[in-house]
């Protein structure tokens, strides 16, 4: 549910109200009780991230001994496989 900003042009009172998007805009000022309150165009709050998973460090696995896991770009190429003829038999 968003927070809407209102202003009363008669008494100058500005306030915010937390209400559903389906609710009708207010018409009466809570301070002077006169009609004519206007809903202001607000910038709103920015997107808020809560919890884990928003940083690259949140996904790293913790290994015993403090060794960091290797990512795809840090791996070494595999050692070439030995040929069947080179099995050490003479």
Question: Key terms for this structure?
Answer:
mainly beta, single chain, 90 residues, three-stranded antiparallel sheet, Rubrerythrin, domain 2, rod-shaped
Please characterize this protein's 3D structure.
With 90 residues, the chain is mostly beta strands. The protein has a domain at 1-44: Single Sheet (Rubrerythrin, domain 2), CATH 2.20.28. Helices cover 0% and strands 13% of the residues. The protein has no helices and three strands. The chain has a three-stranded antiparallel β-sheet, with no helix packed on it. A hairpin with a 6-residue loop joins strand 1 and strand 2. The radius of gyration is 32 Å and the shape is rod-shaped.
CATH architecture of the domain at 1-44: Single Sheet
Kindly report the spatial arrangement of strands forming the biggest sheet: 2-1-3
H/I helix tally: 0
Give Rg in angstroms. 32 Å
Secondary-structure-based class equals mainly beta
Tell me the fraction of residues in β-strands, as a range.
5-15%
Shape: rod-shaped
Question: What is the residue-mean pLDDT, rounded to a whole number?
Answer: 75
Helical residues, percent: under 10%
Number of strands: 3
Largest sheet: 3 strands, antiparallel
What's the CATH topology name of the domain at 1-44? Rubrerythrin, domain 2
CATH domain class name of the domain at 1-44: Mainly Beta
Poorly predicted runs of 5 or more residues:
none
Instruction: Give the SSE string.
Output: EEE
Distance between termini? Answer: 81 Å
